[in-house]
Write a structure and sequence with these properties.
- The chain is an alpha/beta fold and about 260 residues long.
- It is built from seven helices and ten strands.
- A six-stranded mixed sheet has the order 6-7-8-3-9-10, with helices on both faces.
Length: about 260
């Protein structure tokens, strides 16, 4: 297996409850895995652990045969906010990580050009960041992430702050890029529709503590049609699992509050 999580637990010292409990799953090279679940189930925490931005309390994470013990060039994270450098233009933002990785200037330019063309931003390469739209900023962030050619791309709700039309466009573009390059992607989203659109498998999480409720394979043919009856049926089935977890969690929290008052 390319990516393996073995019984990963996470307990933050300032809380009494585990944030993540016994998280175990594997991913093949080139697989697109989406993670969904109710708010507070630890989706972003899980992504941070795989990124090496935080360490599990127990358990292990292995990528391509090596244990994850901290941040590394083999993993790149793309967040909800583009987190671009406003004093650099589009191309300079894409080149920034390559410079930090030690690439020569000409090679930086070659790679940046390749990926800016891939995300259809080559003609905007000299634009300041404040002069491009939110969707174009996320394209720039995607080009920057892809340019590092890491083993694993981690994406934390990268399109959630955008308008619906832009989301549909970027989803289609990311799906086309993935089909072409078969990058291994671990993608956190609050949108079940988005998960079914992208994923080879959807990891459904429950909360209190955050744990894997079910792993659902998605065998629909690509490109996927949001209006296809099989797509709609699978979206509804996964959504019902997410909503049930959220309702159970809310009920448990209410029960606990009642006990605290008595």
């Amino acid at each position: 297996m390319y990516l393996t999580l073995n019984s990963v637990h996470k307990l933050f010292t300032h809380t009494k409850k585990e944030t993540l409990q016994d998280i175990s799953f594997t991913a093949e090279k080139g697989e697109f895995i989406c993670i969904v679940g109710p708010s507070g189930c630890g989706k972003s925490t899980l992504l941070n652990l795989v990124a090496g931005l935080d360490a599990p309390t127990s358990g292990e994470i292995i990528l391509d045969g090596k244990r994850v013990i901290g941040p590394g060039a083999d993993r790149v994270v793309m967040f909800q906010e583009a987190a671009l450098y406003p004093w650099l233009n589009v191309m300079q933002n894409v080149m920034f990580g390559l410079k930090a990785a030690g690439y020569q200037k000409e090679r930086q330019k070659e790679i940046a050009e390749k990926y800016l063309k891939l995300v259809q931003l080559w003609h905007y390469r000299d634009y300041p960041i404040h002069q491009i739209s939110g969707g174009m900023r996320q394209r720039t962030a995607l080009a920057r992430a892809l340019a590092l050619e890491s083993k694993l791309l981690l994406m934390d709700e990268p399109f959630s702050a955008l308008d619906k039309q832009t989301i549909h466009i970027l989803r289609a573009e990311l799906e086309q890029i993935w089909e072409k390059h078969k990058k291994t992607i671990l993608y956190v989203t609050h949108s079940v529709e988005e998960a079914v659109y992208f994923a080879d498998r959807v990891i459904v999480m429950a909360e209190n503590p955050g744990r894997i409720k079910e792993i659902v394979p998605v065998t629909l043919s690509r490109p996927r049609n949001l209006e296809d009856e099989n797509f709609i049926a699978l979206r509804k089935r996964i959504l019902s699992k997410v909503q049930l977890s959220a309702w159970k969690s809310a009920a448990e929290e209410f029960d606990q509050s009642e006990e605290d008052r008595t």
